[in-house]
Amino acid sequence: MTTIGAHPPRYVGAAGQPTVDSWQEGPHNRWTFAHLGEMLPTASVTRHFPAAPAAATERLDALAVPGLSQRLEESYTDAFLVLHRNNVIAEYYRPGFAPDDLHLVMSISKSMCGLVVGALVDSGDIVTSDRVVHYVPELAGSAYDGPTIQHVLDMAIHLNYSEDYMDPASEVQTHDRSSGWRTRRDGDPQDTYEFLTTLTGNGTVGRFQYCSANTDVLAWIIERVTGLRYSEALSKYLWSKLDADRDATITVDSSGFGFANGGVSCTARDLARVGRLMLDGGVGPAGRVVSEGWVRSILAGGDREAMADASFTGIHPQGSYTRQWWCTGNERGNVTGIGIYGQYLWIDPATDTVVVQLSTWPEPDSGHLHELQNQLLLDVSRSLDQPLASQEIPTEETAQESKETAA
């Protein structure tokens, strides 16, 4: 069983040492989510052109949100940032966590993968109506034999896959073990590729079932059509276009396959740049990542009927899921990337705002904490309500004009 050395003095959390089987759980995660490279093998997701990081604001008084500091503490927040009209107007980091620290974003990684797929759809390298096995014939005979790439993007496939993070017998824990996130057991697949070929289903498509394996299938397709490792593709098609402050990292398994469904770590500011990309119609400071059409399809939302029984609709009754993003369906048009243990990348088109909240909940999933964070994110958005010249998604030209004005 792998262990690490003593925690640095800045660690705010449990006494004792996290292991490869306990690092995700609170309170160990208050340290490990910011030091994942000391727990697991990782690969760099390079930014290519280093930016000059702006000074951290580390202030919250610009937001008229009652009880904000207390609510951040109650939700185990490590980093919180509000990017309004491309300006950081509020920023908070808990004691022991710094603005330039990387933080594991868990399943917000899925939303990044969806953007890379979008770039390859725009280039014609991927066709969403194609069957998965057209690109990865190794998945013939698995649950992915019949579905299309669009089904995978929208999590609209039936799989015999339990996403119960605390059940050692669940498929998600086998997935973790195959990917190096937990100690392998005898009989486990050797790596993520092999694990994906073992998954079965009943052949049903069109109904939402959240399954982390779907994103890793997309990453395998990305590798197949680009000839790159997923970490390299994520750098080429997304990270290098963001003018990021720092390289991101992604955990890799024994075969070097990047854990696309949840393994990315980055700074809060750089994650906000991903959200800004969405508000700028798919254009980053260093060029277009995805088409306006791809972004518009996400902001328009997915199939609400397919989501009828999902827990997400308990908070957002009109909610849906499409292209690896959660869509609230509310009057504001909020869409979000979400990761377990309290990771949120919240996009508010109504006020041209991105909110990042990175946390370390004691447990992976909590209905109470989801409700608390969603209400906080809505309150932040509403506090910034004011008429905008246009609430249309910017074109490449207007996005550039916005950047020049902000500069």
From TrEMBL:
Catalytic reaction(s) noted: [N-(6-aminohexanoyl)](n) + H2O = [N-(6-aminohexanoyl)](n-1) + 6-aminohexanoate; N-(6-aminohexanoyl)-6-aminohexanoate + H2O = 2 6-aminohexanoate
Q: What class of enzyme is it?
A: hydrolase
What job does the chain carry out? Answer: Involved in nylon oligomer degradation.
| GO BP | nylon catabolic process
Q: What's the name of the protein?
A: 6-aminohexanoate-dimer hydrolase
What InterPro entries does the entry give?
Beta-lactam-related, Beta-lactam/transpept-like, Diverse_Enzym_Activities
Q: What is its EC number?
A: 3.5.1.46
Keyword field: Hydrolase, Nylon degradation
Report the gene name. Answer: nylB
**Record GO terms (molecular function):** 6-aminohexanoate-dimer hydrolase activity
User: Which residues does the UniProt record annotate as the domain Beta-lactamase-related?
Assistant: 78-370
Q: Does the keyword Lipoprotein apply?
A: no
Sequence segments annotated as region (Disordered)? 387-407
Q: In which pathway does it act?
A: Xenobiotic degradation; nylon-6 oligomer degradation
Q: Where are the transmembrane segments?
A: none
